[in-house]
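Page 42, continued from yesterday. The earlier attempt failed because a stray header line got pasted into the input along with the sequence. Redoing it now with the clean sequence only.
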Amino acid sequence: MDSERVPVGYREQYESGVLRRRVRRAYRILERCCLCPRRCGVNRLLGEEGFCRAGARPVVASGQVHHGEEPPISGSRGSGTIFFSCCTLRCVFCQNFPISHLRHGNCMSGPTLGRMMLRLQRQGCHNINLVTPTHFVPQILAGLLYAARHGLHIPLVYNCSGYESMETLGLLDGIVDIYLPDLKYSASEPARLYSHAADYFTAARRAIGEMYRQVGDLELDDDGIARRGILVRHLVLPNNLAGTREVLQFLMQELSPRIAVSLMSQYFPAYQAQRFAELNRRVTTTEYAATLEAADRLGLAEGWRQDLPE
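This time it went through. Structure tokens are written below.
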């Protein structure tokens, strides 16, 4: 952490000089990469690739106004969503696999990324929404430095898998306004089998705890738009493979009874899920109803619940 304490928010961090120092620290991490819990240790500045297969420059699949996020994120004007290619997980049911697994996208410089943020702000977006950003945090901070210098001021959303390292979250402390992490599993074997990360829950519970420490419960403005805080997403899987009740117990009992949770029913057997009989179907009405009942019994009152797809 930086020794001096300044007001939170990337604008204040930029004006104080902290953001520039974070960029330098972050790029040093790329020399022996530990941006995610895999800690591959490769020198990405020299072109070496670790598990995520990301290099020295950010790869962006798209930057667009997005209206499909939770209501406090999308609002009425949309979220300025930037989709990054590559991923630190290998989810067999990934719905964005052309981006995350196949690396579809375009390399760009930090200033180009910053200009994309500014364009989305000019289009009226409520926020800048960084999707699957973990492995490009140094490059994102460089882009943010450029954008802040040229007038970016809307909230920054860190939209991630939950599989984060404490080093990376330390770089983001006081800079990210809204954390939007997944909490995918509560047990190691499903995480190993379906996402190639047996340590997922161990890493994610530490990471989400740190995110909560940084930004606290979700805060909305008078129009219901998120301005600060954490919103945790949980995708319900068939056959209770995600361990949903245990996920909710952790969030409410170890973090906050007011934690905002988005319970998602949108699972379908995408990508390679057909290889696994237990994943090769949608969630049933009975399964999702049991999820909502468990949430009610635990007293979960904050957040959003999807309807089952037709």
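Notes: Strands lie at 59-66, 79-84, 106-107, 128-131, 156-160, 178-181, 219-220, 226-235, 260-264, 303-305.
Reminder to self: strip header lines before submitting.
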